[in-house]
Amino acid sequence: MRRNSIMLIISLLLAWVGAQAQVTTSPGVVQESTQNLTIYFHADQGNKKLADLPPSTQIYAHTGVLLTTSTGPSDWKYAPTWGDNSTKYLMTYEGENLYSLYIGDIRSYYGVPANQTITKLAFVFRTADKSLEGKTASNGDIFVDVLDGGLQVQLTSSLGDDTVMTDETSNVTFTLASTEEATLTININGKEDIAKAENAKTLTAEYHFIEPGRYNIYGNAVLPDGTRKSQQMTLTLTAGSPQANYPGGVPKMGAVANADGSVTFCIAAPEKRGVMMVGSWNDFETSDDYLMSYQDYNGQRYFWLTVPNIDPTKQYIYYYLVDGSTRVGDPYAKLILDPSNDKYISSTVFPNLPAYPTNKIPGNNVSLAVYQGNINDFEWTDDNFTPADKDNLIVYELLLRDFTGNEGEARGNGTLKKALEKLPYLKKLGVNCIELMPICEFNGNNSWGYNPNFYFAPDKAYGTPADYKTFINACHEAGIAVVLDMVFNQSDWQHPWYQMYPVGSNPMYNATAPHAYSVLNDWNQGHPLVRQQWKDAVQYWMKEYHVDGYRFDLVKGLGNNDSYANNGDGATNAYNKSRVQNMRDIQLAMLEVNPNCIFINENFAGAQEENEMAAFGQLNWVQLNYQGCQFAQGNSSNASLNAMLATKNSRTWGSTVSFLESHDEQRLAYAQEVSGVQGIKGDLSLSMRRLGSAAAQMLMAPGAHMIWQFSELGNNTNTKDAQGGNNTSPKPVLWSYYDVPDRRGLYDSYCELIGIRLSNPELFSESASSSLNFSGWVLGRYFHSSAAGKELHLLVNPQVDKELTMSTSFASTNPADYSIASKSYGTEPSFDVAAGKVTIPANSYVLIINKNVVNGVEEIKSDLEAVDIVSEEWYTLSGLKVERPQNGIYLKVTKYSDGTNRTFKVVVNR
Questions:
Q1: Which of 25, 51, 428, 655 has a CA 20 to 30 Å removed from the CA of 636?
Q2: Close Cβ partners of 637 (under 8 Å, ≥ 6 residues apart)
Q3: What is d(CA 57, CA 537) in angstroms, rounded to the nearest whole number?
Q4: Sequence-separated (6 or more) residues with CB below 8 Å from residue 41
Q5: pLDDT value at position 754?
């Protein structure tokens, strides 16, 4: 036996979860018939979030029950609303880190009818303001078994659920409690009684484990009539992880398949002494055969194990047992099983999802990793796809949850398969890039995704890995790039590295964010393993899922800890060299995979910092929501949209992605309904016209831009809560808006504007001769551009109730050289080339082009006989691929020419 390297690993083989050391009861065994029941909460056990608080701190119990009808450990019954501070749930302070809650009669306290059977009491302890929660060591819910009537026993130990013991401290205290006076014994391996008592209800014994091995501990109670009741606890005493170098000498986190059919698993766990793999290959038994070796490399400790005979077509479920006490998933897992939320995922969304192995995992609160060697096999057909130039991107921000689903309902049941059905809609719109809001495995099934737990696994709520790849492949075939919204500032609590360490001494996380924008659990951006995780993650999704790049969330928080002088707004918003360098390091990792990758920062920093990022080819977000709302409402104050052009905002030309709306901002159409000036508020036609005029200013300004889903239909859903914060709940699915003429007119305006934009990139280049003023009101707004014989004039009348005539310099005096390419729906603007005058109705825009400009929506006339049926959905016409007629009259055609997309209107003579 090696001294100072002995680990005692205990697995309580009980239904769902065994007794928790952080909760004790009086009496010691709980049955439905138990009277005068008191719960004791030991705050210095478990996750210790409520430890060492002042005695005056009010602690409440959030508590319910599990019934025989409960579907799992998260299916609580008869629990109050979260945050209920009724006296009934107020704990009594009994002494340092000890609180009590008097239950009395269980059924009466919880209000459980007599015809329902209680199996467990469930607890989460919290402060009155809900800011701190007392849970298990792995942040799970706490349960107390409610046993059947008659003779019952409860065997517990001083180790709690799972605890590491060295040989110096491996004296374990066992306690056996019985519901009736009986002969009690505690036995090791069925051979040696270590304690015995006659006519007793409790028995305590201490035992010192010396030899490594597997031990079965039995607690027995025998009544005078011979009635017997027993409970078993299995302990494994094993040596700590041995030292051995990873194959090849350089550890690689995650699972690596080897040529001989074996797989090498590796997890980084600095400061830890031993890690064991526990998996489905041996029915989740703890065994020395799966004790991992460790290697210290570049100042970090890695644990690894090569598992033989792994079939790449089968799914293997596993977790890591760290230092014998902490169960965690694999941070590099490619698929995750969630103990609480997977059961709510429909088999139509994720067929054949492995069931969580309830009763095999103590506590049932660890996210399990799934290894399947062929999980990334896919037949890609996008080898020739290249994203559009970064300064010519029209990005569509898409939340899969709310993009599709039940029409008119806010159920949040959108999926990848349903989104795929809408791809022709996006293709017709003309966007050349889709930005998926976060899809890395996040907490729960209903989320925006900014609470990730695992960075290499797609969230299953939207579909299978194959569904993600099918969607991305189809986007590429349609000429649309796909970028992922990536959240590197914070994670939720299930990330393995968060689970492994106490909050105050976690090397990978900050106990307190060093910046002013703290969200959830703040990553330590300067830690080498964190930096490596980011590089590995961006490369993984680009290689295996063919994503074209990323939008990085909350870049303000991605500086090193020592780069913030303090956590105030001033320090956070100040120039930060480490942010520039950290983002450059991530970009370099991406460029190794795809030299044409898209890199977008949500930074909102100063010009110096963002221009340094721009020098590397990175884009930075610019949001003009407030100004856009002002313009949409008909308010002239603070309504300038000049910053749609990067150079108008002291940024490098073509270095920004500017937008009117995003997931974080209020809908312009809702702002109109609430605060629109008289004439706008309540008038759908005028409302849509102003939204089209705002969109025209955005889309015609040179540089990349972004459309938040359904802006093109004038979505008017309120996105804020009562306090003005983000309302992240599901939003109604309103595809019916497409059939509302005024909203469809807005959509057509987007199509026309984007078509012009993408078909004539030279007019929006830095070398074009152009002028832009999107700040005027009474005198109007404009964008003029000319290049290579092409000429374009956008004119906007911001006034609410007055027609406006604007002066415009046309290069030619021949009226036949010019035409209106786009205008506000339902309006009739006019122009006089000779006089150089353009007349625009109130609230409207007009886009005038010369004959050399390729019109994104050209009209082609044809006889019906010239149209050949290809399928139920498509026709061909002179070699063009054509969608079926709308109302039997119009056809939309998409043509691919020189890598650009062009949309034509086809009028069929009938």
A1: 655
A2: 630
A3: 42
A4: 22, 23, 59, 61, 91, 98, 99, 100, 101, 123, 125, 134
A5: 97
| pLDDT tens profile 617-656 | 999 999 999 999 999 999 999 999 999 999 999 999 999 9
pLDDT of residue 886 exceeding 80, the answer is: no
- Map tokens 């099918």 to a residue: 470
Identify whether the C-beta of residue 501 lies closer than 8 Å to the C-beta of residue 567. no
**What's the farthest any 2 CA atoms get from each other in the chain?**
115
Give CA separation, 521 vs 131, 421, 428, 514, in Å: 13, 37, 41, 12
**Model pLDDT for residues 745-786, shown as the tens digit of each residue:** 999 999 999 999 999 999 999 999 999 999 999 999 999 999
* 23 or 781, which is more confident: 781
* 8 Å CB contact between 91 and 41: yes
Q: Give the pLDDT confidence of 517-532 residue by residue, as tens digits.
A: 889 999 999 999 999 9
Q: What average pLDDT does the segment 312-327 reach?
A: 93
Which residue from 808, 37, 49 is spatially nearest to 498, judged by alpha carbons?
49
- Strands 118-127 and 59-67, by their bridges, are antiparallel
* Token pair belonging to 376: 């990334």
What's the CA gap between 469 and 546, in Å, rounded? 8
Which amino acid belongs to residue 494? Q
Residue entry with tokens 């996008």: 382
* Residue 34, phi-psi category: left (phi > 0), alpha (psi -120 to 50), beta (remainder): beta
DSSP per-residue codes, 823-887: E-TT---EEETTTTEEEE-TT-EEEEEETTS--SEEEEEEEGGGPEE-SSSEEEETTEEEEPPBT
| pLDDT computed for residue 898 by the predictor | 38
Q: What is the pTM of this model?
A: 0.85
Measured over the CA atoms of residue 22, residue 27, residue 28 and residue 34, the dihedral's sign is negative
CA 425 to chain centre: 25
Q: What average pLDDT is seen over the chain?
A: 89
Gap between the Cα atoms of 142 and 158, Å rounded? 17
pLDDT (tens digit, 9 = 90+) per residue, 229-272? 999 888 877 778 999 999 999 999 999 999 999 999 999 999 99
* Angle, CA 513 vertex, CA 512 and CA 517 arms, to 5°: 135
Q: What is the pLDDT of residue 554?
A: 96
Show the beta-strand stretches assigned E in 392-538.
394-398, 433-436, 481-486, 490-491, 509-510, 521-523
**Per-residue pLDDT at 890:** 37
DSSP structural state of residue 738: G
DSSP for 799-810, written as a single string: -SS--EEEE---
8 Å CB contact between 659 and 622: yes
- Please list, in sequence order, all residues whose beta carbon lies within 8 angstroms of the beta carbon of residue 207, skipping any fewer than 6 positions away: 171, 172, 174, 188, 194
What local confidence, expressed as pLDDT, does residue 170 receive?
65
The tokens 């659920």 sit on which residue? 161
CA distance 31 to 179: 9
For residue 606 the two structure tokens come to 């100063």
Helix, strand, coil tally for the chain in percent (to 5): 20, 30, 45
- Please state the φ and ψ torsions of residue 627, each to the nearest 5 degrees: -65, -40
Q: Give the C-alpha separation, 283 to 357, whole Å.
A: 9
Please name the residues in contact with 515: beta carbons below 8 A apart, sequence gap of 6 or more. 556, 557, 559, 564, 567, 571, 572
Indicate left, alpha or beta for 508 from its phi (over 0: left) and psi (-120 to 50: alpha). alpha
Residue 820 to residue 845: CA distance in whole angstroms: 11
Helices then strands, counting H and E runs in the chain, come out as 14, 48
The Cα-based distances of 769 to 318, 349, 709, 765, 782 in angstroms read 62, 51, 32, 9, 14
- Give the C-alpha separation, 282 to 804, whole Å: 79
Query: Under a CB-based contact definition with an 8 Å cutoff, are residues 387 and 43 in contact?
Result: no
